[in-house]
């Protein structure tokens, strides 16, 4: 865990993420890349070219000053922090930063999103989760001492989740965490008998070459099952694959990974398939 990206919008939540990133960096000697994305108004973008350049330069200088003040924190002492300012709020650009610097992890603060706002807009964390090719750790609250003893990983144990499990195993090993695997069985069309579940899980684990037991947890929805199981075992973090669906596919089908990241009270790490 050598290089960590932290998107910064100067909010309370982004400072929560920065604190967690700092905690990880101190334990593993990591470098932090703090990324701020300017949100330029259409009024500025529609002005004449000369005036637009002057206004953009002013905003960049203002952001640099605020960025410097935001990063002047005691908990960042003795940690290498590289500030990066991107001119537009395009979340896919985080992938470019991650690839350029070979980042291992994105740590993102979030307050979540609910109701119509979630359906039509979604949270910034959801957009990062959807676009990021590296694991995204979503933080909701101020965590004074980030620890990772019990790590829950949930999926449907179909073959396309094998790469995500491999990433989850690697993540757990890096943090010396105990990995708990869970399958959530729900009523309705997705219901499986005990025999069918164990057949699918056994086949999956054989291909994954993992000699671990899988907890079968029953609940009304997959999301509720993941959250309730994690609460029952006092998990420190939960991990889940995400398909990164976009556009109408995302609107109609959604992503359980993004929903869990939005609604979980404990930290969530997502692994893009």
From TrEMBL:
CDD domains assigned to the protein according to its UniProt record, in alphabetical order: USP-like
Residue span, UspA domain: 1-140, 149-271
Matches recorded under Gene3D superfamilies: HUPs
Record-stated family: Belongs to the universal stress protein A family.
Entry-linked PANTHER family: STRESS RESPONSE PROTEIN NHAX, UNIVERSAL STRESS PROTEIN UP12
Record-given protein name: Universal stress protein
Organism: Sediminicola luteus
Highest classification ranks of the organism: Bacteria, Pseudomonadati, Bacteroidota, Flavobacteriia, Flavobacteriales
